[in-house]
Amino acid sequence: MKDLFEGIAWLFTEILFLPYDALRELQDSSWFLANFMNWVFMIICFVAMVYWMIQLKKYNDNDEENRDPIAHSFLG
To answer: CA distances (Å), 72 to each of 57, 64, 66, 68, in order?
Structure first.
């Protein structure tokens, strides 16, 4: 079992985190390049939030939801 966990640790530290090590080296040259992955994740989250809001608006415009205060059994 110890070899399995050491193999998983080696996989992450030597292979999967290699791009992050390269980005860490860019820290002195440019702040924007060093935080590239943060920008990517923020853009993905923003796009997902906009998509979700558009879908909610589309569902809300169909006016299918029962909006009575006791529409759901757990409310009343």
So the answer is: 21, 14, 9, 8
What pLDDT was estimated at residue 75? 65
Structure tokens that stand for 64 in this block: 């299918």
Cβ-based burial of 34 (10 A; exposed 0-12, middle 13-18, buried ≥19): middle
| CB < 8 Å & 24+ apart, contacts of 69-73 | none
Measured CA angle at 37 (ends 35, 41), to 5 deg: 120
Q: Residue 49: pLDDT band by 50, 70, 90 thresholds? A: very high
Considering its fold, how many domains does the chain have in total? 1
Would residue 66 count as lying in a domain?
A: no
The whole model's pTM is what? 0.56
- Evaluate whether residue 47 is within a structural domain: yes
Q: Which residue spans within the chain are E strands per DSSP? A: none
If one compares 68 and 60, the residue with the highest pLDDT of the two is 60
